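REQUEST ID: PR-0412
SUBMITTED BY: lab tech R.K.
PRIORITY: routine
TASK: structure prediction, single protein chain
INPUT:
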Amino acid sequence: MAITTFNYDTQLAPAVVFGIGPLLRKIYKDDDEYVEALNNHYKYFNTMPWLANIVLGATLALEDKEGITSLDAVQNIKVSLMGPLAGIGDTLFWTLLPYYHGLHRRIYGFGRQPHRCYPVAHRKPYLHLHPYPVNVDRIP
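STATUS: complete
OUTPUT:
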């Protein structure tokens, strides 16, 4: 989802319309219905961008099944799901991100050579774990 189209009135709605516009065109062949569906999706939308696909998939499935008569139901689904998914996504992202950064620092060390932190068999590191070639002769 493109964040560059963010504004304070509609939040991520322009990115939603940009992303699902071609799919709405396949659902609505009539231009008037297509414009009405686009305007419905231009309303306020804000959630965790990584989890927005769940909301958009549900709304597109509903529009594909029921057509233009489902615009109120589509908006209700978007409004009811975007808050809980934002809470779940933000919690997972902002709590797991520091954990993974700490894990990465623990594995690779604090500025040390990465091969000093890997498990060693017969005093030689597992070479397939290295992101770059290591001169094994220099390792004691």
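NOTES: Helices lie at 13-27, 31-41, 52-66, 71-108.
REVIEWED BY: pending
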